[in-house]
Amino acid sequence: MSIEPSSTDSPIPALARLPVQVFGEAGLPPDGRLREDTLAAEVAVALVFNGISHAVMMATPRDIEDFALGFALSEGILDSAADCRGIEATVLDAATAGLPDGMPGIEVQLEISPRTFERLKGRRRSLAGRTGCGVCGVESFAALDLSPPRVPARPGAAQIGLAEVLRAVEGLRAQQALNAQAGALHAAGWAGVDGTLTDVLEDVGRHNALDKLLGRLARAGRLGGEAAAPGFVVMTSRGSHELVRKCAQLGVPALATVSAPTAMGVQMARLCGIALWGLVRPPRALRYTA
């Protein structure tokens, strides 16, 4: 299955309906009652660069092409979207993927430029999939990649203040269509300098949601370069160092999160020149770095 730039879904549904036994509701018998519940899908996604498998991630099976490109960019595998010559995704049944029954997978083949592929082969880094810590699979302290580039000054970034950050967060919930049904997904949104949201991407993983957003923006030529529209990222998660690092890699000047940042997230934002906002819960927000 070839995924075109405009596609948003894989053949695997992003949501599933499963039976659940409900207890404790008013009017229910002591032994509960069987109902159906909507749950978020979580699928193994293998990212393969020029035929070499690099990472397997657990992700929501939607916006897969954006996710693959965003991951490649935010991890420094590619320098720009132009380094990706093609993306093709194939849905594998459980038996073909070597997974337990009822657990299909998605293999994403990315064709990348020879220059970036040679660099990728030279990296001694094996990822079994980034998780909550964001550094699973690294071989040493030196492989942590805690020194991303400093973000250059962006036009309009100074206009991003309390009102704009609150406006973005307040608009986030209304655009979380999957989470409204399943209640288990993070969201990453792009807001203009006035706080108006233009894009919202969802995933069971906060890193994945951000990669999907960055991939969507990069594909459209809206990140980096003089033609890029000014704005900032807003997320439903905590402000971890990993999210800050990904934003810095693509030159995002500001990041606002609903939950608090970590101390390392604040330090990395300070080093990268990113304005980091946390605990953004109207009418209040905290800015940790200028």
Question: Would you mind describing this structure in some detail?
Answer:
- The protein folds into two domains: 102 residues, Ubiquitin-like (UB roll), CATH 3.10.20; 131 residues, Cytidine Deaminase, domain 2, CATH 3.40.140.
- The protein has eight helices and twelve strands.
- β3 and β4 form a beta hairpin.
- α1 packs across α6 and α7 runs parallel beside α8.
- It has a six-stranded mixed beta sheet, sandwiched between helices. A four-stranded mixed beta sheet has the order 4-3-6-5.
- With 290 residues, it is of the alpha/beta class.
Which features does this protein show?
Ubiquitin-like (UB roll); 4-stranded mixed sheet; single chain; 6-stranded mixed sheet; 290 residues; disordered N terminus; Cytidine Deaminase, domain 2
Architecture blueprint of SSEs:
Elements (H helix, E strand, L loop, with lengths): L14 E8 L10 E8 L2 E7 L2 E8 L4 H11 L9 E9 L1 H4 L7 E8 L1 H9 L39 H11 L4 H6 L3 E7 L4 E7 L2 H14 L11 E5 L5 H9 L4 E4 L5 H10 L2 E7 L2 E4 L3
Parallel strand pairs: 3-6, 9-10, 10-11
Antiparallel strand pairs: 1-2, 3-4, 5-6, 7-8, 7-9, 11-12
The run of helices and strands is EEEEHEHEHHHEEHEHEHEE
Uncertain ranges: 1-8, 124-133
Gyration radius, rounded = 20 Å
Strand content: 25-35%
N/C terminus separation: 45 Å
Strands side by side in the biggest sheet: 8-7-9-10-11-12
CATH class designation of the largest domain: Alpha Beta
Described by the principal axes of the CA atoms, the overall outline is globular
CATH fold label of the largest domain:
Cytidine Deaminase, domain 2
Proper CATH architecture of the largest domain: 3-Layer(aba) Sandwich
Number of helices: 8
Mean pLDDT: 90
Q: For the report, how would you describe the main beta sheet?
A: 6 strands, mixed
How many domains?
Answer: 2
Helix content: 25-40%
Structural class: alpha/beta
